[in-house]
């Protein structure tokens, strides 16, 4: 990586995304100040599928960086209007992320800030959760964040029946926890034409 860097392509509270300086695939991520290198390696080594894949982790100019093979695909925040996505997509994305969170909790890890800018679609249309360090040891906080994500997807992508399903899931999640709420979501279907089209349009635009 050279000292003259390209302009960032995405900025969130956790990470700043840059195109790779070598022109290869994926992205370079500069982590927010105060994130220790060891914390990033801990997440990389969890073995939990559905997290943003992390490759090399290094320190440069006082900041922690990582390389990911995942391009800066669209996040939920990018896809709240005009996408053609529907209830099936909302259920698939929400269910996929919820299962990632359950796997993290089973390993004693917590995310801490699940939101529309931490969930993106990979080139196949599958959801990925961006996580670069362990969050506060607070299971209920993750569940509240998931419930808020469910309500966002209900409003953005769902018909009336789908929105009702996601709101029921959100309510059960807050009251009874993830293990009790998750069976209410149908198993995710493979990405359909609308989701694949969204990812391809985003890729061309980027």
TrEMBL record:
It comes from the Bacteria. This is Protein kinase domain-containing protein. It comes from Pseudonocardia hydrocarbonoxydans. The lineage of its organism: Bacteria, Bacillati, Actinomycetota, Actinomycetes, Pseudonocardiales.
């Amino acid at each position: 990586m050279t000292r003259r860097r390209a302009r960032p392509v995405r900025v969130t509270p956790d990470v700043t995304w840059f195109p790779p300086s070598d022109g290869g695939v994926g992205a370079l991520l500069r982590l927010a100040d105060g994130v220790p290198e060891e914390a990033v390696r801990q997440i990389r080594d969890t073995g939990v599928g559905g997290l943003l894949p992390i490759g090399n982790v290094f320190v440069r100019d006082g900041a922690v960086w990582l390389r990911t093979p995942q391009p800066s695909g669209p996040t939920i925040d990018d896809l709240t209007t005009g996408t053609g996505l529907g209830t099936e997509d909302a259920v698939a994305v929400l269910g996929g992320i919820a299962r990632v969170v359950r796997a993290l909790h089973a390993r004693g890890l917590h995310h801490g800030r699940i939101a529309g800018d931490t969930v993106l679609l990979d080139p196949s249309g599958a959801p990925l959760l961006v996580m670069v360090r362990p969050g506060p040891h607070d299971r209920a906080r993750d569940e509240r964040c998931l419930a808020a994500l469910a309500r966002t997807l209900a409003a953005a992508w769902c018909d009336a029946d789908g929105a009702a399903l996601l709101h029921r899931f959100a309510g059960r999640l807050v009251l009874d926890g993830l293990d009790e709420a998750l069976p209410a979501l149908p198993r995710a279907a493979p990405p359909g034409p609308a989701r694949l089209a969204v990812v391809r349009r985003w890729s061309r635009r980027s």
